[in-house]
C-alpha cells in the first residue's frame, strides 16, 4: 500500500511541475451547469464574464454551489449582498457572514480575533477565499476576520454542508468567498463616509470601464476608539485593580479595545469578449489592535488570563492573477496564480499601562508567513440534448505555505530597562497538491446529479524544532535548533454526491452526502505552546461526513423560503489531551463528534437532524403612506456532542441563533428598519464550568435615498444589553452611527 501511495505522490508532483509551465488555476467553482437555462450552451460552463455584464460583481472570482445555479430563494441563507452591507452598516466579513443562518460569531478574547462557526465548525475547518484565492495564516490555519473590511466587496457568499470538491482540503466545515466589486461604466465611483461614537470610517471605489478594459482603485480607513460597556456590566474588584475594564477612573470604557485598519486594492482587467478575460489584483491591508484583558468570574485562574497584549501591526498583502479562456466546443480553461503575505507583530507588557516590559511574561514576537500557489481548471460538455446533459470539470492545485517567526525572550536580570536577547529564527514549510473531478448530469428538466472525487497530499518541506534552556536573572540563554525527524506525508481521498429535483422553476429539492478532510496545521503538529505542550508531528488529518436535505422555493409572489436539515459526523477529531507527560498536554487524534439537531438521549450517539431556516416576504401593498414593506427571519438549532468524551464541551458554540427584522418604507425616499438577534448560552471552558448568558440584541436604523447617494443613521444594541460571546470578554453596549453612501455612474 505504501509503495502505491509513493508512486501516486511522485506522479502528482510530476503533474504539478508540468502544470507550472502550462498555466495556473482558479479556486473558484463555476456557475451552474445543471440549470436548465444554462445547459444548452457550453459557454455557460465557463462561467465567463461577458463584456455587457452590468452586475457590478467580479464574476471571475465568484464561487457557487457546484452543479447547480442557486435561485433567489436559495441565496437567502448563503449570500450577503452589498445592499445589506451598506444598510446594516457592516464593517467586516465576520459580522456580514453572521447575518446568515447556521453561522455564529466567535470572539477569541485572549487574542481579540473575530472568527465564525459554520454549523459548528471553527474557522480552522472553514475555507476563506477572496475572489476564489485561499486566505489563511499558514501557521495556525486562522485569520482575524475583523481585519477584512467589506467596503470593496460586491457580495459575500457562504457554502454550507456541500462545497465543491475542487476546493481541496481544509473546507470540511464550509467556504466563505469575498467577491469584489467591478466597474460597469466609463466613470464608476462609490464609497462611504461615516462616524460613530467610537471613531471614523471612510472608503472610496474609483473605477472605469473603457470597452474591453476595466480598472478599479479601492481605498478604505477605519479608526475606532475603546468602546463603551453596558451599565449592566458589573466589574469585579480585581478587574478594576488590574485595569482590565476602565481606561479612566469611574468610566465605562473597555480598556485596550481600540483598533484601526486601512486597505488599498487595485484591479486591472481585460475582457475582449464573453468567455475570455484576464485580470490582475493587488491588495495591501494594515491593521493595529489591542487585546482587552480578561474580566470574568474565573478568579482561580484569572492571573493567567490577564494578558496585556498589543498588536503593533497586523498586515495582509496579496497579489493574484486570474484568467479564463473559452475554446468553443473544446471547452474552457480557468487559471490563477497568487501570493499572500501575513506579517504581524505581538508585544506583551507588564500591566495595564502598556508601558513597561520587565516581567518574565513580557515578550516581543513577529510572524512573517506567506502562501504561494495556483490552480488550473478545465471543463467541457459531452452532451447537451433536452433529455440529457453531461458536463465534466477537473482541476489541479498547488499551494506552498511558509511560517517564519522571530522571538525575543525577556532577560529579567534588569529591573530598570527591558533586555530582549533574540532567539534563533524558526522556519516551517508545507506543500500541498491536489486534484479534483466533478461530473454534473441533468436528466430532462427536473433531475440533476453531481458526483465528485478528489485526492490531496500534504508534504513537510521543513519543520524547525527549537529547544531552549532559559534562566532569567543569570543571563544564560541556551538554544538548540534542529529538525523534527518524524514528518510523515499525509493524504486524503474525499468525495461527494448531490441530487437536485426541480419540479418547476420556483422550487428546488436537494440531498447531498460529502466527505471532507482537514489536515492538521503547523501549530497543531509542532507547537510547544510556551513550554506547556508536547509536539505531535505524526498527527493525522480529521474528517467529516456531512449530510443535508434542503428545500428552497418562491411559493408565491414576494415570499421566499429556504429550509435545510443537516448532520455532520466527525472522525479522528483533533483534541487536546491533558497530562500526557508531567502535566503537559498534546494534540492527538482521539475523538469522534457529532453536530446535529435535538438529541434523543444526551448520553447517546444519535440525534435528529439539525434544522436551518431562512425566509423573506415583501408584501404586495402600496399606498400614499406605504411604499414598501418587507420582513425576514432566519435561524438554526444545532447540538454539539463529543461522542468520545461526552463531558468535554465545544467552546463558545451556541445551540440556538435567531435573527429577524422588518424594513418599512412609508415613502419612496425614506425608510426605517429594525432587527433583533438572539443567541443561546455558550460554554467558554471545555469542562462547562464557565458560560455566557443568553442574549437578545435589538438594532434600529433609518435611510434616506436621494439620487446617487443615501443617508444612513442607526443605533446598535438599543437596549444597552450586557452580553458576551466568550465569558469574561463583554461586548459593546449601545452605539450610534451616521453614514453617507454614494454611488455615481456615468
Q: How would you characterize the overall build of this protein?
A:
The protein has a single domain, classed as TonB-dependent receptor, beta-barrel domain (Maltoporin, Chain A). It is globular. It has a 22-stranded antiparallel barrel. A five-stranded mixed beta sheet has the order 1-6-7-4-5. It has helices at 2-19, 82-87, 93-97, 237-242, 302-305, 522-526, and strands at residues 79-81, 103-108, 113-118, 127-130, 133-134, 153-159, 175-180, 188-196, 199-210, 213-224, 259-273, 276-291, 309-326, 332-348, 363-384, 388-408, 426-443, 447-471, 476-483, 490-504, 507-518, 542-556, 559-581, 584-596, 610-618, 628-637, 639-642, 656-667, 670-679, 695-706, 709-716, 735-745. It is mainly β. Helices cover 6% and strands 51% of the residues.
Mean pLDDT: 85
Radius of gyration: 26 Å
Shape: globular
Q: Give the helix/strand class.
A: mainly beta
Distance between the termini: 64 Å
How many domains comprise the coordinates?
1
- The CATH fourth-level homologous superfamily: TonB-dependent receptor, beta-barrel domain
- In CATH, the topology is named Maltoporin, Chain A
Assembly annotation:
single chain
Q: What fraction, in percent, of the residue positions are helical?
A: under 10%
What's the β-strand tally?
32
Based on the coordinates given, report the CATH architecture: Beta Barrel
**Which range does the strand content fall in?**
over 45%
CATH class: Mainly Beta
**Distinct helical segment count:** 6
Amino acid at each position: 500500500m505504501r509503495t502505491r501511495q509513493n508512486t501516486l505522490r511522485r506522479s502528482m508532483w510530476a503533474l504539478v511541475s508540468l502544470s507550472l509551465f502550462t498555466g495556473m488555476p482558479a479556486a473558484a467553482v463555476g456557475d451552474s451547469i445543471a440549470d436548465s437555462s444554462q445547459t444548452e450552451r457550453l459557454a455557460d460552463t465557463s462561467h465567463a464574464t461577458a463584456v455587457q455584464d452590468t452586475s457590478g460583481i467580479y464574476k471571475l472570482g465568484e464561487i457557487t454551489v457546484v452543479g447547480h445555479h442557486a435561485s433567489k430563494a436559495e441565496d437567502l441563507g448563503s449570500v450577503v449582498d452589498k445592499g445589506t452591507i451598506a444598510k446594516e452598516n457592516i464593517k467586516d466579513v465576520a459580522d456580514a457572514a453572521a447575518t446568515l443562518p447556521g453561522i455564529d460569531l466567535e470572539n477569541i478574547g485572549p487574542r481579540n480575533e473575530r472568527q465564525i462557526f459554520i454549523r459548528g465548525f471553527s474557522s480552522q475547518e472553514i475555507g476563506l477565499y477572496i475572489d476564489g484565492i485561499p486566505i489563511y495564516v499558514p501557521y495556525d490555519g486562522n485569520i482575524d476576520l475583523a481585519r477584512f473590511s467589506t467596503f470593496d466587496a460586491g457580495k459575500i457568499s457562504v457554502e454550507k454542508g456541500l462545497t465543491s470538491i475542487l476546493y481541496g482540503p481544509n473546507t470540511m466545515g464550509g467556504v466563505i468567498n469575498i467577491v469584489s466589486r467591478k466597474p460597469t461604466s466609463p466613470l464608476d465611483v462609490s464609497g462611504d463616509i461615516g462616524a460613530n461614537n467610537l471613531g471614523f470610517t471612510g472608503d472610496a471605489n474609483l473605477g472605469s470601464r473603457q470597452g474591453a478594459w476595466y480598472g478599479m482603485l479601492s481605498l478604505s480607513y477605519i479608526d475606532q476608539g475603546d468602546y463603551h460597556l453596558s451599565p449592566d456590566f458589573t466589574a469585579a474588584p480585581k478587574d478594576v485593580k488590574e485595569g482590565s475594564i476602565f481606561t479612566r477612573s469611574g468610566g465605562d470604557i473597555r480598556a485596550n479595545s481600540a483598533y484601526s485598519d486601512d486597505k488599498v486594492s487595485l484591479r486591472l482587467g481585460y475582457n475582449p469578449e464573453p468567455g475570455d478575460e484576464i485580470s490582475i489584483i493587488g491588495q495591501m491591508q494594515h491593521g493595529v489592535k489591542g487585546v482587552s484583558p480578561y474580566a470574568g468570574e474565573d478568579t482561580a485562574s484569572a492571573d493567567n488570563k490577564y494578558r496585556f497584549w498589543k498588536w503593533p501591526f497586523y498586515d495582509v498583502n496579496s497579489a493574484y492573477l486570474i484568467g479564463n479562456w473559452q475554446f468553443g466546443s473544446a471547452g474552457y480553461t480557468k487559471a490563477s496564480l497568487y501570493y499572500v503575505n501575513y506579517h504581524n507583530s505581538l508585544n506583551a507588557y507588564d500591566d495595564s499601562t502598556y508601558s513597561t516590559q520587565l516581567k518574565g511574561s513580557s515578550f516581543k514576537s513577529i510572524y512573517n508567513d506567506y502562501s504561494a500557489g495556483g490552480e488550473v481548471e478545465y471543463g467541457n460538455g459531452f452532451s447537451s440534448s433536452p433529455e440529457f446533459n453531461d458536463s465534466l470539470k477537473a482541476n489541479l492545485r498547488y499551494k506552498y505555505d511558509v511560517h517564519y517567526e522571530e522571538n525575543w525572550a525577556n532577560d529579567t536580570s534588569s529591573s530598570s530597562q527591558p533586555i530582549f536577547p533574540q532567539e534563533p529564527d524558526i522556519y516551517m514549510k508545507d506543500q500541498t497538491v491536489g486534484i479534483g473531478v466533478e461530473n454534473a448530469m441533468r436528466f430532462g428538466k427536473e433531475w440533476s446529479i453531481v458526483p465528485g472525487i478528489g485526492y490531496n497530499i500534504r508534504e513537510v518541506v521543513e519543520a524547525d524544532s527549537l529547544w531552549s534552556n532559559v534562566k532569567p536573572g543569570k543571563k544564560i540563554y541556551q538554544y538548540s535548533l534542529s529538525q523534527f525527524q518524524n514528518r510523515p506525508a499525509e493524504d486524503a481521498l474525499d468525495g461527494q454526491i448531490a441530487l437536485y429535483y426541480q419540479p418547476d422553476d420556483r422550487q428546488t429539492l436537494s440531498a447531498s452526502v460529502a466527505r471532507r478532510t482537514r489536515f492538521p496545521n503547523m501549530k497543531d503538529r509542532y507547537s510547544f505552546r510556551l513550554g506547556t505542550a508536547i509536539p505531535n508531528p505524526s498527527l493525522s488529518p480529521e474528517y467529516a461526513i456531512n449530510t443535508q436535505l434542503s428545500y428552497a422555493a418562491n411559493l408565491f409572489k414576494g415570499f421566499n423560503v429556504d429550509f435545510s436539515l443537516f448532520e455532520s459526523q466527525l472522525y479522528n477529531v483533533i483534541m487536546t489531551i491533558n497530562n500526557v507527560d508531567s502535566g503537559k498536554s498534546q494534540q492527538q487524534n482521539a475523538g469522534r463528534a457529532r453536530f446535529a439537531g435535538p438529541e434523543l438521549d444526551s448520553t447517546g450517539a444519535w440525534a435528529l437532524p439539525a434544522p436551518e431556516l431562512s425566509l423573506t416576504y415583501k408584501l404586495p401593498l402600496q399606498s400614499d403612506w406605504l411604499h414598501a414593506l418587507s420582513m425576514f427571519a432566519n435561524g438554526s438549532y444545532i447540538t454539539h456532542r463529543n461522542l468520545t468524551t461526552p463531558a468535554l464541551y465545544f467552546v463558545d458554540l451556541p445551540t440556538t441563533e435567531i435573527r429577524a427584522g422588518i424594513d418599512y418604507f412609508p415613502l419612496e425616499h425614506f425608510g426605517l428598519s429594525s432587527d433583533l438577534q438572539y443567541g443561546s448560552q455558550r460554554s467558554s471552558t471545555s469542562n462547562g464550568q464557565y458560560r455566557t448568558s443568553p442574549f437578545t440584541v435589538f438594532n434600529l436604523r433609518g435611510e434616506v435615498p436621494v439620487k446617487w447617494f443615501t443617508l444612513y443613521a442607526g443605533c446598535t444594541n438599543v437596549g444597552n444589553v450586557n452580553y458576551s460571546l466568550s465569558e469574561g470578554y463583554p461586548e459593546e453596549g449601545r452605539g450610534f452611527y451616521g453614514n453617507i453612501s454614494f454611488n455615481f455612474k456615468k
